[in-house]
Amino acid sequence: MTQTPRPRSLTPVVLILLIALAPVVFALIAYFMPASGLRPGGSTNYGELIDPQRPLPPAETLSLRTLDDRLYDLESLHGHWVLVSADHAACPESCVRKLFILRNSHASQGKEVERLRRVWFILDEGEVDKQILEAYKGTVMLRARPETLGRFLVPDANAGQAADALLAPMWIIDPLGNLMMRFPADADPIKVRDDIRKLLRNSRIG
């Protein structure tokens, strides 16, 4: 007596279809239901992107000088990502913290380290402590007039407030000479490092 074949179970087919459709379903939920928490944020950077980016002013406008009183043109750093801070020569603890964050962020970039340079703008004519000079070798230290530098780094501050407005943030200048990112006061050093790493990884310039 011939047995009637059992109908095949549709369960495996249904499971395969569900697995295949899952990404589409999640994408639709994320798109049409933002409150679901499935939609990624519009930005993954920690620092604030400067929009529009601001190009470097001409050297004669900035009038930067080295510690031995030679004129310096930031254009000489063209082709590198430039990590920037500004403070007074006395360099209080908040200043040291910025120099430390940028130095360590730079040093932690492994094989990409040569793509970066560091600049500290000194906002007065005071003498820089020898310990600072030694600890932050490799940082380009330049004297700058706060009112002139402020028009580039903090254009929203008036001339009288420029010096104070320059003290808290840190910035990045891209390899084409554009100011493109600003980090907040009391920045998280790990997040600063990670932002720089992402910039280097995703950029085809510098």
Description of the molecule:
The chain is an alpha+beta fold and 206 residues long. The protein has 2 domains: 9-42, no CATH class; 48-202, Glutaredoxin (3-Layer(aba) Sandwich), CATH 3.40.30. Helices cover 35% and strands 20% of the residues. It has 7 helices and 8 strands. An 8-stranded mixed beta sheet has the order 1-8-7-4-5-6-2-3. The protein is elongated, with a radius of gyration of 26 Å. The chain starts with 10 loop residues before the first helix and ends with a helix. Residues 24-42 have low confidence and may be disordered.
How much is the average pLDDT? 87
Strand sequence of the main sheet, in spatial order?
A: 1-8-7-4-5-6-2-3
Largest sheet: 8 strands, mixed
What is the chain-wise order of helices and strands?
Answer: HEHEEEHEHEHHEEH
Q: What is the helix tally?
A: 7
Helical percentage: 25-40%
The CATH architecture of the largest domain can be named as 3-Layer(aba) Sandwich
- Report the portion of residues in β strands: 15-25%
The CATH H-level homologous superfamily of the largest domain? Glutaredoxin
Helix-strand makeup class: alpha+beta
Total domain modules: 2
Low-pLDDT residue intervals, each spanning 5 or more residues? 24-42
Terminus-to-terminus distance: 81 Å
What's the CATH topology name of the largest domain? Glutaredoxin
Shape: elongated
How many runs of DSSP E, i.e. beta strands?
8
Radius of gyration from CA coordinates: 26 Å
- The CATH C-level name of the largest domain is Alpha Beta
